[in-house]
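Pipeline run #58 for the internal structure catalog. This entry was flagged by the ingest filter as a single-chain record with no existing model, so it goes straight to prediction. Upstream metadata was stripped on purpose; only the residue string is passed forward. Reviewer on rotation: M.T. Logging verbosity set to normal.
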Amino acid sequence: MMFLALVAVAPKLYAQSGEGYSRGYVSYSTVAIDWSELKDLNDGLYPIKDAVSLGFLKSAQVVNTLPLHLEYGANLQYMFGNDESSLLGVKTTYSASNVALNVPLHASFDIALGQIAIIPYAGINLRLNLLGQQVVETKIGNTVTTSEVDLYDTSDKDGAAGEAAWKRFQTGLSYGVALRFGAITLSAGITSDLMPLVDRGENLTATTELKTLSLGFAF
């Protein structure tokens, strides 16, 4: 009901000006990690499959005579997942999570069709990985043991990833298309890493690809 109410009032609340617009949005993404070696093993150890984000995006018109815009903003993203395995009465659960700050920089082109606009976009994504954790829970009978690893801690202390630590900073390529109706925007896009999340030289690298659906509202 709330969504239908937003659709009904959207054209009255918002009309894009030549100077651009701002919008907040929420997103859901599927996450695929491409490991260069031992994919099945690493997918089990770090089973991140989903992500949710909350962010904002601003737009500025580049050329007054064309609906060409520069989009920029930020979003806070939480990636997560878990996997289980059992062998000879031993049940092991692997969980992994990652919190990141993303800064998208896009060029977009508005194709107006009455009150509806189709907006293809492409650009780069800057990602700062803030927190990452792997949790391994082992259960044998009624005995449960848990270990945790900080995926970005490069030290040699207990619970640190050490030399296997993931990378804090990444860049990526992002592209997609948005559909705007008044103040409401629905978008679908893909973000692929240009810089790897994991880089252990020739031994192992890993990059991510996120397929994202977003719902936004202009303000």
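catalog note: The chain has one domain: 2-218.
catalog note: Residues 2-218 form a domain with the Porin fold (CATH 2.40.160).
status: ready for reviewer M.T.
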